[in-house]
Each structure stands twice: as structure tokens, then as C-alpha cells.
Fold these 2 entries.
Entry 1:
Amino acid sequence: MRSLKLILALLVVAAAVWTCQRAEREAPVVETAEDLTLGAAGGEVAIDLADPGAGLRGVRVTLSHAEGETLLLEREFAGDLFLGGALNALTLRPRIAAESLEAVQGDAWLRVEVRDWSLFANSTLREIPLSVDREAPEIEVASGLTYLREAGSGAVAYTLSELGERDGVRVGERFFRGFAKPGGDELQRVALFAIPPGSDPDLPVVVVAEDAVGNRAEAGWATVVKSWPLRDAHVTISPAFLARILPRFDHDDDADPAAAFDDINTRVRAENERRLRELIADSDTQLALDGALQQMSGSMVTSRFGERRAYFLKGKRISEAVHLGYDLAATARARVTAAAPGRVVYAGDLGIYGKCVLIDHGLGLTTLYGHLSSLEVKAGQRVERGQQLGRSGATGLAGGDHLHFSVLVGDVYVDPIEWWDPEWVRTHVQTALE
Ligand SMILES: [Zn+2]
């Protein structure tokens, strides 16, 4: 008798629990933005759904406006009336395509309807106001005719109608970011850019601007790009040089020194270049340049920018690389000084560049000093033009004591010769930016 009562009591409790869970009156929860703005190209919207009680049963997302309704997404979720649904929470990311937005004139809403597996079939309807911003930023380019050259640099000033996600200069597929013009409001912009060595002189050079919702505009100006072919150079490698270099790159017991050299000259070089791009990615917003870059004093040029080098060992071609800087030799352990004021972003070992200093001069302009024997600055330190950074040497992938000097605009190496020329800097950079 007692056990029957107990069983009955348990059944009553079980029925009560079942009823509570299956007959809950909590409507599903929809969490998303309070209102939405999309660009003409459309975009994705994140919607969080939850129903902790009976579980989610179905959802329907539509775009509704005066001209009609477009179904964006409809889903049903497994479950049954006795056990409920298996899914209690879900994030949806419906994509609203450009075509769906074309018909939208005036007010529009994103409608999210969600149902649950409760015996009461609770549902929630959220209507999120949606507007379409079709207006691309307007760009007014201030510069006139600009003479450029392959492997050379340029500067441009422009004004935007609105500040958006990003703006700058596009050269072919490369992008050079723009910065607020010093002393102006933030809609007045300046950018340095480069014509990558070996590129097509016909490639487009345009100012681009993209607003926060993805509307994009481009504006060109009159440019003339002179072609500047790379020069071929033949570099003979000696076994003695290899014997000195390979151990520096953990290649000392290699059976094939020629392959080991090629590995350093290609794979290690590419790795070092990737690291270097990370180090210089965050440039200062003001150009710290008071005239031309200063060339190492009393130095002799032993190799120029843009040599397409083929390396030979005992008459056999073993590797190749393009030399993207100047080699400057003075005396051994000569003073190496900053080419312009700036901020040291790196001072340390950098693979093929050996002991290396990188200085950020702002607006994406960087100078590199490689193969040093000693360093006298630290990352983060501000330096003046002519301030000693260290002494020349032959660290990294270097044969004799010299300075490897490079200039980068954005992440593109450019010929330093323009930046060493006060007349070029005045007419092509300072005038353009003012
Ligand atoms: Zn060099």
C-alpha cells in the first residue's frame, strides 16, 4: 500500500515536471541589433536565438518593405510535443544580398519570427528597422599631374565627404593607407604610395575610399608612370663565403651547400620579409621628415636598388633574388646614422639582414639598416636625423662590411634615390602633402 502511494507520488511529480517543461509560457528570445544600416552591396546580420524551456522549433527571417517581402531564411528544428526540441540556442547569420535591397525604397524591416516546442506554441516576432545607405564617399583629389616611375614613390592629398572603414591609394592590387592631414580636419587626407618594381606602367593608381557599410568609391588623377626595368646582375659565390654563411643559418652540416644557400636566399628571406612587414605595420600618423633622407656619410655605392641577381657557384646558377636596397660601404665598423627623424620600431637580429634597425618615419615610410656589427638604439626610441644607430658590419647574409639600406613605402620597397634627392622630396612629397 505504501509503495503504491510512493509510485503515485512519483508519477505526480514526474507529470508536474513534464508539464512545467513542455507547457512553459516563455517565448523564445531574439537578440540582434536595435536597428540596421546596410550598404548597397548588402551584408550579413547576426541574430541570436534562445529558448531554454521547450527548445526552438522554427525560425523565419524576412526582409519586409513597401514593395513586398523577401524570404531570407526559414528553418525547422527537430523535436516532438512529448519530449520537446533538442536545440535551445542558435546564432544565425543570414546574408542580405544586393539584389534583395534593390527594391527597398524608404522604410524597411528585418522580421524575425521564432516558435518554440512548448505545448502553448510560444512565438516571438521582432521587427528591426533597416535602412540602406547607397551613398559612396565622395573623393576630391587635390594633386595635379604627377610624374611617377616604377620602383618609385608618390604622394597625394585628397578630401573625403565622410570618414569610413578605410581610404588610401590603390596601385594595381596594392593598397597604401591614407592618414589625416596634419593640421587639417580628419576628412582632409594624405597618403604615400609606391609603384612596385617590375610592375606594369599602365596599372591603375587611384584614391579609394570605403564607408562603414561597404560603399566604395575610386578617383584617379593625372599620372604618368615611367617604366624602369630591373637590371640583371651576375653574383659569384665562393666556397669560402658559403663556409662562413651557412652556419649562421643552421645549415652547417648540409651535404648540398648550393641548396642550403638557395634555402636561405629564398625561404628564409621570405620569412624575414613577412616578419619585417609585421614590425612596420603600425606607422605613425605624421610624417617626420624635414627634407630629404640623409645618405650614409662618406660611403661608396657598391650595389644599387633593383638588381635582379643570379647567384653562381663554380659556374653553376644556384639561386636568384632581386636586390631591394642600396649597399653602401665606408670603412669597417663605420658609423650608421638615422636617415631622418623617426621612431625605432625594431633593433635586433632579422635573419638575412643580420643585426638590423627599422625606423618608422610616419605615413608608412620606413628605413632599414642591415648587416650591422653593433646596435646603439632600442625599439620604441625616437631618433633624430644623423643620430647614430650602430656600426656597419657583415652580419646576416653579407660577404664584407657594408650597410644595406632600404626604404619602404607601405610594404613595398622603393628606390631610395628619390628620397635622397631634396628637390624630389620637396616637389613630389612636401608640395603634394601641403
Ligand atoms: Zn644589400
Entry 2:
Amino acid sequence: MSYAPDTLPRAEDWRDRAACADPRYLPIRDFWFADDSDCSQVRTATTICGHCPARDACLAAASEEEAGRGQQSMFGIRGGLTSKQRWNRKKRDAAKRARARKQPDPCGTTATYYQHLMAGEPIDAACQAASDAYEQQLATASQNG
Ligand code: SF4
């Protein structure tokens, strides 16, 4: 069986705009896979990434591909970041998501009273009562002792 050549124009791809694919950079293509300790090569590659019109898409693609990978399975410079920088970014984002998922403490304690206060939120009756009771305890303790 034979197939006709695909002559349809393909959809635009961010890789078409990749600065690192510019033929002028062919002699230094390995710089995007340089060891992190090779500061000169890493700096050259990341500087070129810094001017790349596809940088955001490149970084997004790297994040998607590397989502389930460990640090040892992340290679090269992508989106202007080294594998180590992407790994650190991934850990930071995961910690941020975990913090966002954390259930807030139930109202009615002095801790939640101060959490509302720090966040500039209105103080509900239960938290206000807990705070008042705590203040009362402190006042009683200072009178007695
Ligand atoms: S951001 Fe860097 S690695 Fe990504 S496409 Fe652009 S030049 Fe290449």
C-alpha cells in the first residue's frame, strides 16, 4: 500500500520559531545540553533563549513532558532554564499547589482569629468569641499572678 505525500500545510508549531533551531547556532547546538557546571556554554544558551519568541511555549512543553519525571530524567536547557532550575521550579509549584489544597483550619479558635486578621478577612462570631475568651483568660491570669 502506498500513501500520497502529505501536501497539506501543517499547523503552525512553536518549534518553527525556536531560536535554537536557527542555522547560525548549529555550531553551538551542544550548548543546550552542556553540563550545568559549564557556565560559559550554559550562559550563552540561556541568553539566546532569553530572546527566543517561542520561550513560553518551549517551557510549557518541557513542563508537560517532564511532569512525572525525576530530576535524573530531565536534560538540557529548555525555555531558558537548566534542568536543575526546571526541577526546582517544579518542586516550588508542587509545594504551592499543596499549600493551596490545604483545608483552612475550622473557625472558632484564636489561631483562626489571627489568620483572618492577617488576611484582612472579616472576623466571624466564633473566632471573635474565641479571641475574647483568650483575652479574658490572660486578664484573669495577670490579676491572679
Ligand atoms: S527557549 Fe531556548 S530551548 Fe526553547 S526553543 Fe527557544 S532557544 Fe530553544
